[in-house]
Write a structure and sequence with these properties.
The protein is of the alpha+beta class. Helix content is 44%, strand content 22%. The chain has a six-stranded mixed sheet, sandwiched between helices. Residues 185-358 form the Peptidase M16 C-terminal domain. This is Insulinase family protein.
Amino acid sequence: MKNVQFQRGTVHNIRVHVLPTEQFKTYAISVYVGSRLQEETVTPTALIPFVLRRGTKVYPETKQFRERLDDLYGAGFGFDIYKRGDYQMVQFRMDLIQDDFVNSTESLLEQGMRFVGEAITQPAAQDGEFTSKYVDSEKTTLQKRIESIINDKVKYAAERCIEEMCKGEPYRLHPLGTIEALKQLTSKELYTYYKQWLKESPIDIYVVGKTTLKEVMALVESSFGGEREVAGGYSTLQGQSKEAEVREVIEELDVKQGKLNLGLRTHTTYADAAYPTMLMYNGILGGYPHSKLFINVREKESLAYYASSRLDGHKGILTIQSGIELENYEKAVAIIRQQLDAMTAGDINDIELQQTQAMITGHLRQLQDSAFELISFDFNNILSGVERTVPDLINDVLAVDKAQIQAAAGKVKLDTIYFLRDRKEGV
């Protein structure tokens, strides 16, 4: 697919994005509801989609709700909760077979849009509160999800590193919220907040498939009725504060293997022209099995069970994750710093450059084979206020040279070193 172009409109202050295509045999529907990460709202926001999946005004029992999906030829309906920069995103997804492939008297796209609209805007509720049995059940589900992060020490260390690095910033908050706040939520409080969340949050609806913008706009108008206060739009909150010195945080828990995480400020975001260069920087540093961290920290020195880096382009933060023997802390930190210094010095060979370009562009080409990946890519543009197509980004990545990567490396600053170790004395 060449230079994918979404067609756009607005209904009820909801932004609508449609990609008319016959490339896929299904319709892909995504609804993004975004809100700023805030301590007092992050937990109820996370709980809302769990409760919404239990039933609607039309199908108040969960069994009916799920049977309706079966009636739609086994349509899939689900959600994700995550953060993009300083925003907490709730994404609802539905995929259902295109009308051409079934014998149905009513358009499946119309039925699917109605189902999604009802699930989000007409939940099972009575007397100004959610059905209490659903809220209680889903509070337990969400609590287990949060506990699974705490129990997975790799994820726990990654989250703690961000928490320490971004103290005082919204980004420190986990998008699933906290167990403490969850336990205090009542059905009535949650419903009151839900009504406000739905009224005030930016909403973007995407449809990919054999349809038109005009058809989808009409379906959104009938399925997501009611005027809303917010016309949509996201502002980029950089929060690129920098400690005068690198902070070192050592936490002791009952662990047998050390978890060493580093947080760095890249001072480059998705909206910047230098973003393709930062993609290359991350790829060469620790994004792939041929990267410097993997080769030098794990393979050559045998210091780590895993060693990699991850880039959050919306926040402009890069994190390094590694699992090490407890006694190797200082040596591992030193060798990781050497890799950062090598990037700053422009110590990048042709193989590293070419392999990284091949990996990134290969992944980008694969995006074009998935409707939901195309939606996700386009929504990154909406969030960032830029217009960038997949072919554009591929060309930009292929044009990046060593001098540009070295220049980008000069802006990357180590902010926080976090080490999770056992409870023994000393390091």
